[in-house]
Amino acid sequence: MSLKSVILELARNSQAPHGDRDWRYEFRAPLDERGYFDPKAWDDFKELCTVRRFQNGALAETGLLCRTAGGRFFFSYRPGFEDDEPVFRFADHRFAPGEYVTITEHDGVARTFRVVGVNHWSPRAEARSPAPGATRLH
Q1: 73 half-sphere exposure, CB direction, 13 A CA radius
Q2: Is the pTM of this model over 0.90?
Q3: Where are the domains of the chain?
Q4: Which tens digits make up the pLDDT trace of 70-122?
Q5: Do the beta carbons of residue 38 and residue 1 sit within 8 Å?
Q6: CB of 81 closer than 8 Å to CB of 66
């Protein structure tokens, strides 16, 4: 089990027929070799499971991958639940390029995002290279 850095971009939809590379999420999570999330390993690494949300190509918010008492995962940017963004069936998804994930954003709209990159992550690797160098689909 290792921590991975995952990049999601807004998938094609009626408002963005080609998707949107500038509307994205970058997060870290423990994934197995097949790309599935390990909620038990999350307990050991949760302080490292950060998320960055980008809109219009600029960093909009930073936060953490969190879990409710009921076991559902969400992105949280500030204390309280007002800004929480649930990720539909997060623990059941395969995070691999080409897969899709649904996030209910701050405005209450559930949007689909496409996984475009997955990289191994370690604190030492980030110190050497702060820019994510994920393999991209395009």
Answers
A1: 26
A2: no
A3: 2-116
A4: 889 999 998 877 889 999 999 999 999 999 999 999 899 999 999 999 999 98
A5: yes
A6: no
CA-nearest of 126, 104, 4 to 53 is 104
Three-state secondary structure of the chain: CEEEEEEEEECCCCCCCCCEEEEEEEEEEEECCCCEECHHHHHHHHHHCEEEEEECCEEEEEEEEEECCCCCEEEECCCCCCCCEEECCHHHCECCCCCEEEEECCCCCEEEEEEEEEEECCHHHHHHCCCCCCCCCC
Q: From residue 75, how far is each of 27, 78, 86, 111 by CA, in Å?
A: 9, 10, 6, 14
